[in-house]
Design a protein that fits this description.
- The chain is of the alpha+beta class and 526 residues long.
- Helices cover 28% and strands 20% of the residues.
- The chain is built from 16 helices and 21 strands.
- A hairpin with a 2-residue loop joins strand 6 and strand 7 (139-144).
- Helix 3 (105-118) crosses helix 4 (120-127) and helix 10 (309-317) runs antiparallel to helix 13.
- The longest helix has 18 residues, at 474-491.
């Protein structure tokens, strides 16, 4: 039986299990997320499901709209002094945490300090900060070594990982240790007493949340109005079960249905399929640079002739080329810094035999390698299956370790060699916002053990990144970005394996969804 037929047959069956047996209440929204929520700390991990959880319960000082324009969110505003080297931010009135305590500058300062340890743009900001200090309960002050025009864009970052504000006692957790308490000040509060990883996550509307006044709701900018009293994330790993529940109205929103399920759902007039983000997400094949075999640049390069981006992307979105880009580079396709620089290594003739020749020339003699990946999240799982087939056909002595996404997220933090449980290669994807420019581009960092998992050391990428921050105009930015792509496609901190439109499925009576991510403010029943 074909996989498509299996899903279609199962989807026709009724939804089993008591968790979704009751009809959806008018003030309750039921949602199936892209993966299980295993980490509650959006600073510690870059997992998109944890980022989405973060947007539910936390807020940021500044927001950004779909045109990448920033505006105050938790902030009432700011003043610049000393030519922009001093920035004083004032909090708006009425901010409260979910435990009833007022949000103070004393909470904001350690929250930002922790964020600056992990986030690429935060790390850049941190290198320019002489002092970040509390002025009084409502004001905080940056003292910068020099003006940093991207400060507010950094504080408004949408994706991995946003500068979420936490209570002081939580924010003082070491940046490389997961937090143990989930108290925010955002439009929804996390119900710790109902959290069951692998089954359900529950949020309730925070009655004391006061949306920012004025402006238009767009991405994370403007008023964040919660129209549901309760949002339930139901962890359902079987696509057919999720599809059946969506069709009967037992759930309202299925974040990432696989391609064959999308075809089924399109036939239901009570369901709509749309791109969750107008820009594509990027897929990557990431190497571990610390240990053999891929600490050898020549062996990383040897794989290039065997990479067919269309194979990886078709596995994610199906045989619908209009929904993917099979000539994607380092930056998000369709954005100003995307280019064809250095792309001949991926767009030239594809040859498995040529890749094998290069592997032999690089000295590969059956050394063990380990590919890790998930089974329960659409894009990384689909790309991992293609990657597993590829490394086998190339003749690698490959150990393929497939687990749930939460275990993969935990395992990729290991810096141990393969023989001690480490990993060699993984495939995953990033939101469009992450790859728009070098500022927040995690996998493009080349700062060694301080880099994202895989830990490449590429000093030239770091030099170019620093130069990009100093660029006086877009033309200069684009020139630097072209060189960064050329260097990256030579040094290979990772291999881009394409970009794709992530399609989501909702009940047709849901309106005013905020485009970009799985965001829940503004969303209502029409």
């Amino acid at each position: 039986m074909k996989r498509r037929d299996l899903f279609a047959g199962a989807a026709a069956a009724s939804l089993a299990g008591p968790a979704l047996a009751q009809p959806t209440q008018n003030r309750v929204l039921k949602f199936v997320p892209q993966a299980n929520l295993t980490s509650l700390d959006p600073i510690w991990t870059t997992a998109n499901v944890t980022r989405n959880h973060g947007h539910m319960i936390y807020d940021t000082l500044y927001g950004v709209n779909s045109r990448f324009e920033t505006s105050p969110q938790m902030a009432a505003g700011h003043v610049l002094e000393d030519g922009g080297k001093i920035v004083i931010i004032t909090l708006r009135d009425g901010l409260k945490f979910h435990d009833g305590e007022a949000v103070r500058a004393q909470d904001v300062v350690p929250s930002l300090a922790r964020w600056m340890r992990r986030n690429p743009m935060g790390q850049k900001l941190g290198s320019l900060v002489d002092a970040l200090e509390v002025v009084d309960d409502k004001r905080l002050r940056f003292k910068l070594k020099r003006p940093f025009p991207l400060l507010f864009m950094a504080l408004a970052q949408v994706s991995n990982s946003p500068a979420f504000i936490m209570p002081e006692r939580v924010a003082r957790t070491d940046a490389f240790t997961q937090i143990r308490e989930t108290i925010g000040s955002g439009p929804f509060a996390f119900k710790a007493d109902e959290f069951n990883s692998g089954s359900r996550v529950v949020y309730t509307r925070f009655a004391d949340y006061v949306p920012t006044s004025g402006g238009t709701t767009s991405l994370t900018a403007g008023p964040k109005v919660a129209n549901f009293d309760r949002v339930e994330w139901n962890i359902i790993t079987d696509a057919a079960t999720s599809a059946a529940a969506l069709q009967t109205g037992e759930i309202d929103w299925y974040e990432q249905p696989p391609p064959e399920i999308q075809q089924l759902l399109r036939r239901n007039r009570n369901v709509k399929i749309e791109a969750i983000d107008p820009l594509p997400l990027s897929g990557i094949l990431r190497f571990n640079h610390l240990h053999p075999p891929f600490n050898d640049k020549k062996l990383r390069q040897a794989i290039l002739p065997a990479i067919v981006q269309a194979d990886f992307m078709a596995a994610v979105v199906g045989d619908e080329p209009q929904n993917y880009d099979a000539n994607a580079g380092i930056f998000t396709p369709g954005t100003p810094l995307a280019s064809d620089a250095g792309m001949s290594v991926l767009s030239g003739p594809r040859s498995l035999d040529r890749a094998k020749e290069l592997m032999r020339a690089a000295g590969y003699t059956n050394q063990p390698m380990r590919l890790i990946g998930p089974t329960d999240i659409l894009a990384p799982s689909a790309m991992t299956q293609v990657g597993a087939d590829l490394v086998r056909r190339l003749g690698f002595n490959a150990d393929i370790v497939l687990t749930d996404w939460g275990t993969t997220v935990q395992r990729r933090t290991s810096r141990e060699p393969v023989e001690r449980g480490g990993w060699s290669m993984l495939l995953t994807s990033f939101s469009s916002f992450d790859f728009v420019n070098p500022a927040a581009h995690f996998p493009l960092r080349g700062n060694g053990t301080d880099a994202w998992f895989g830990w490449p050391s590429v000093p030239r990428l770091e030099e170019l990144r620093d130069s990009w921050f100093e660029a006086p105009d877009l033309a200069t930015e684009q020139s630097i970005a072209r060189e960064m792509q050329t260097v990256a496609l030579d040094e290979l901190p990772y291999i881009p394996v394409g970009a794709y439109k992530s399609l989501t499925a909702l009940r047709s009576n849901l309106v005013d969804r905020v485009s970009g991510l799985a965001l829940f403010w503004g969303l209502r029943r029409g």
